[in-house]
Automatic annotation (TrEMBL):
Protein name: cysteine-S-conjugate beta-lyase
Annotated SUPFAM superfamilies: PLP-dependent transferases
Entry keyword set: Lyase, Pyridoxal phosphate
EC class name: lyase
Domain Aminotransferase class I/classII large residues, every copy: 35-381
């Protein structure tokens, strides 16, 4: 039995996923497989590091030092063969916070921001909240049922003289695509040509499935790195989202200075003490645990594929190349997203994210979080079947 088979009750822990379905979906007693955190305990080494800090009992201001820099740089080198200068590191509580502050730092209300839907919805929602105009470079489905980038449309949008920022999701949520070096080189060069800053949200980059390789866009060329802010975090990788500890890598000094000014403006400096300890322990000691997790997630993907083939053959998934979010194609059922949501919640008693939340071209898809024990996953799949048949 795997450590990930253990079913742990998360109800009544103020979990957004488990305790807030009434507030978010309007119903209770549904199995939550929506928001992107895992139903697994963090690595033992991380829990031990937290115990040590808690036992010390003093939780004053914390600023990570050289041990953290070593942990981060070694992690990126050993897992992704990416050598970074520790001077490029800036800390942030979360990635959404970081993206929001970067929008404030590097754009004005006259500017436009490009995103690639279907995509993690806060990208466009935050841009809109900042009153920036959002341009949608829709991803296209190819004949192999994978998303591809429409580069002609992308260049058109980047070449708009008011476009100042492009938000990349690599690997891509919700589809799990890990963009290839060729694709990223093309994106990077287009952004250089049209002088558009890149925010690359690489929060899912450690969760690589089925042998897929992640290329950080900032690792490709120096000129691309100089125009890129890369966001990474241990939060998805090790299930630490509630501890609020993330990292930005900004190799361009003047961009880093400007970003740090905005951090000061909002008083969002540093990270919380427990988050810092957890991050350091995870990057220093979490590698074996992550390998086991990846193995388990791959088994879960195969389990879904087999289940759907046997019980719901009209529905198929886009096999994820990374992360634990599965993009399920239910277009053959010819139901609106509203009807699908109604069936899922009230007939199947299952809470998923509906595709159109990620952009119009997500309509007819569902996003299921499979980072849970197989027993829970099977329960979710049975509920999906009840909802859709
Ligand atoms: C692509 C992406 N970016 C950012 C986040 C959230 O990051 P944070 O909790 O650090 O704001 C998520 C969470 O699902 C995500 O999928």
């Amino acid at each position: 039995m795997s450590q990930f088979d253990q079913v742990i009750n998360r109800k009544k822990t103020d979990s957004v996923k488990w305790d807030y379905t009434k507030r978010i979906f309007g119903v209770e007693d549904v199995l939550p497989m929506w928001v992107a955190d895992m139903d697994f305990q963090a690595p033992e080494e991380v829990i031990d590091a937290l115990h040590t800090r808690v036992d010390h009992g003093i939780f004053g201001y914390t600023m990570p030092g050289s041990k953290m820099e070593d942990a981060v740089t070694n992690w990126l080198k050993s897992r992704h063969s990416w050598e970074i200068d520790p001077k490029t590191i800036t800390y942030s509580p979360g990635i959404v916070t970081a993206i929001s502050m970067a929008i404030h730092a590097f754009t004005t209300s006259e500017d436009k921001i490009v995103v690639q839907p279907p995509v993690y919805y806060p990208f466009f929602e935050i841009a809109q909240k900042h009153k920036r105009e959002v341009l949608y470079n829709q991803l296209l489905l190819n004949e192999n049922f994978r998303y591809e980038i429409d580069f002609i449309d992308l260049e058109e949008k980047l070449s708009d003289e008011r476009t100042k920022l492009f938000i990349l999701c690599n690997p891509h949520n919700p589809s799990g695509r890990v963009w290839s070096k060729e694709e990223l080189t093309k994106i990077g060069n287009l952004c250089i040509k049209h002088n558009v800053l890149i925010i690359s949200d690489d929060i899912h980059s450690d969760l690589l499935l089925f042998g897929n390789q992640y290329t950080p866009i900032a690792s490709i060329q120096k000129d691309i790195a100089n125009q890129t802010i890369t966001c990474i975090a241990p939060s998805k990788t090790f299930n630490l989202a509630g501890l609020q500890a993330s990292i930005l890598l900004i190799p361009n000094d003047s961009l880093k200075r400007r970003y740090n000014e905005v951090q000061q403006l909002f008083g969002v400096m540093g990270i919380n003490t427990l988050g810092a300890d957890a991050m350091q322990a995870a990057y220093e000691q979490g590698s074996n645990w992550l390998d086991e997790l990846i193995q388990y997630l791959q088994e879960n993907v195969l389990l879904i594929e087999e289940y759907l083939m046997n019980h719901l053959p009209q529905v198929k998934i886009m096999r994820p190349e990374s992360t634990y979010l599965v993009w399920i194609d239910v277009r053959s059922l010819n139901k609106s997203d509203k009807e699908l949501q109604e069936l899922l919640l009230n007939k199947g008693k299952l809470a998923l994210h509906i595709g159109s939340k990620f952009g119009e071209n997500g309509e007819g898809f569902l996003r299921m979080n499979i980072a849970c024990p197989k027993e829970t996953l099977l329960d979710g799949l049975n509920r999906l079947k009840i909802a859709l048949t």
